[in-house]
Amino acid sequence: MEDKHILMIPGPTPVPEKVLSALGKHPIGHRSGDFSKIISEINQNLQWLHQTKNEVLSLNVSGTGAMEAGMINFLSPGDRVLVGVNGKFGDRWAQICEVFGMQTERITAEWGIPLDTEEFRTKLEADTNKEIKAVVITHSETSAGVLNDLETINKYVKAHGKALIIVDAVTSLGAYNLPIDEWDLDVVASGSQKGYMIPPGLGFISVNDKAWQAYETSKFPRFYMDLGKYKKANAKNSTPFTPPINLMFGLQTALQIMQREGLENIFARHLRLTNATRAAAKALGLDLLAPDDAASTAVTAIATDRAEDIRSIMRQKYDIALAGGQDHLKGKIFRIGHLGFISDRDVMMTISCLEATLLELGHDFDAKAGVKAAAAALV
Ligand SMILES: *Cc1c(COP(=O)(O)O)cnc(C)c1O
């Protein structure tokens, strides 16, 4: 049916009506006093969301652009970097480091398994000459639904003293507690179409003083992606280039909605939705890719060789979009996104439609088991 489509994928995520209305306003001049006021409010609220006093810069890029900016502004050609790779995104950050001529070492784990924090400790402790310039970690690895132990890895980075930690928080920011100042995270990147409840097009990057010091000696050429320009403009509640003005109207509204809900409640809701989805999958006799103690609160990956049949029925019959697997997991998993503007009702609806789909496919399970398990987890 027209206009009944629902996105249960890990980005883009659904957008609240109030945000859609804000996006539809007539644009105003980006050098006007009125727009300056909006930037000022957005900046304060971004710092609130990021739990930081650092500047949070907004760039007209997707999440990948924010991550690339987060690497090329603080590092130099030939730098030795450690990149955690246990999924599609970690692999992408390693590729970017290679493209830019950095000495890139991948610390890998199977997709679905969290990165081994000990491997980072060993490498960092052995580096007595302080050659490692950065450690790049994907906090929530969306391709496999895994949450990596960023807090522990960051402790080893801090003990090393020299290396920066560069974090992909694209599906953890706004879904999981990420206290940037308390953990002392140097560079943290995210993107608008995930936890922010607005459409794609904006990338965000939090930068601390240590990273700004590294910026002074970084040797990569850059112009549009030069974060120094954004910092300078930001101090005057401005932007170096024309920002996506309507997306910023939407961001202003979305951040207000998030503030009304409160950080604690936002994190609790994502955890509840995750627990309900996982409980339902187990009750339906489906296999979860990630273990319980390393489950992403943004997306649940479920392993089944009927993944594409399930996605197809869910899409065609029930107008619910689920994500598929990427690379070697294509056709072997499907992923339920429960990130951003997602409520208990959205998850209950998805689980009951999933049960109907499994019935249609002749899957052998206890009828209503998934709905019962999800409902029990949502109290
Ligand atoms: C979506 C996502 C990104 C960014 O992807 P873009 O398509 O560039 O916005 C980066 N990392 C993770 C973990 C993601 O889920």
- Tally of DSSP β-strands: 14
What is the CATH C-level name of the largest domain? Alpha Beta
Strand residue content: 15-25%
Contiguous helical run count:
14
What is the terminal separation in angstroms? 31 Å
Mean pLDDT: 98
| Major beta sheet summary | 7 strands, mixed
- Spell out which ligands are present: pyridoxal-5'-phosphate
Output the CATH topology of the largest domain: Aspartate Aminotransferase, domain 2
CATH superfamily of the largest domain: Type I PLP-dependent aspartate aminotransferase-like (Major domain)
- The poorly predicted ranges are none
Helix/sheet category: alpha/beta
Q: What would CATH call the architecture of the largest domain?
A: 3-Layer(aba) Sandwich
Walk across the major sheet and give the strand order.
2-10-9-8-5-3-4
- Outline: globular
Count of folded domains: 2
Radius of gyration: 21 Å
* Residues in helices, as a percent range: 40-55%
Instruction: Return the string of H and E elements.
Output: EHHEHEHEHEEEHEHEEHHHHEEHEEHH
Oligomer: single chain
Compile the SSE list and pairings.
Elements (H helix, E strand, L loop, with lengths): L5 E3 L8 H7 L9 H18 L4 E5 L3 H10 L7 E6 L2 H12 L3 E6 L8 H10 L5 E7 L1 E2 L4 E2 L2 H11 L3 E5 L11 H4 L3 E5 L11 E5 L1 H9 L9 H8 L10 H17 L1 H21 L3 E2 L10 E5 L3 H12 L1 E5 L8 E5 L6 H17 L8 H9 L2
Parallel strand pairs: 1-13, 3-4, 3-5, 5-8, 8-9
Antiparallel strand pairs: 2-10, 6-7, 9-10, 11-12, 12-14, 13-14
Helix pairs in contact: 1-10, 2-10, 5-6, 11-13, 11-14, 12-13, 13-14
The protein binds pyridoxal-5'-phosphate.
The site of pyridoxal-5'-phosphate (PLP) has 14 residues, from helix 3.
